[in-house]
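Handout, page 2. Input:
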Amino acid sequence: MGSDDMADGAASNRAIAYVRVSTTRQAEEGNSIASQSVRIQKYAKDKGLRLMSRDIIIDDGVSGGVLFDQRGGGELVMKRVESGKFGHLIALKLDRMSRDQIDAVQTIDLLDDEGISVHFVDWFGSSLDTRSPMGRFMLQLVAALAEMERGLISERTRDGMEYLRQNMMRFTHSIYGWNVRKDGSLVPNWKEQDAIDYMVWQMKGNDMSATSVARSLNKRGLEGKKGGTWQGGGVIRAAYNDFHESRNDFPLPEKWGKRPWHRKEIVPENERVV
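Output:
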């Protein structure tokens, strides 16, 4: 066996763990950092996975409503995973990773793209490995619920934005791909729209994972709306925002279409990631 094969074997057996508590009350109810860590370490030992203490990543005092890759611990997990040194991620429960089903499914999909098996020590009373047949089936159910939730959120967002437009009310903040004008309306930011089309083109046309697209954007020196580097979850949220359909109401720049990824028209229903 060559050195590369040995390295791959070690990586496939090596695990990283994620632990989160948001309140003192959770700690008192048995979800303390120590309690989660002990149960995760026992699970890893029982499954024959190699989990070192330094590879237990902790978010202390962080709400589960915060998107996974926007937490200190969550961001660190994704960076560690991208190193290629791990084959497994272990968390006590799904809600430790995220209380937002959409975010949870997207995060697990991103990890799956990286070849990571996600394990939950307590999944309604038993353990779950997302790469097992039962694990994939259960995730399909969660993904279906997340897609329904995504649809409801998109519908409410479109209705809310239409209400603002009809009543001449101001947008208080811009979203990626758009700028807020002085009158409070939104106008396309074409540099960011170029990046959005690039994201969609790479993921749909070239079958590139969101994490790989994030790396590409970072190498090109492109930043998010508030600066900083891109993560896979941020790429998906920026690329597949139903509001981008409103771009069809604006004239395209003169040189638009010279890049292979430029879209002349946006048709969201054909560009959904499920």
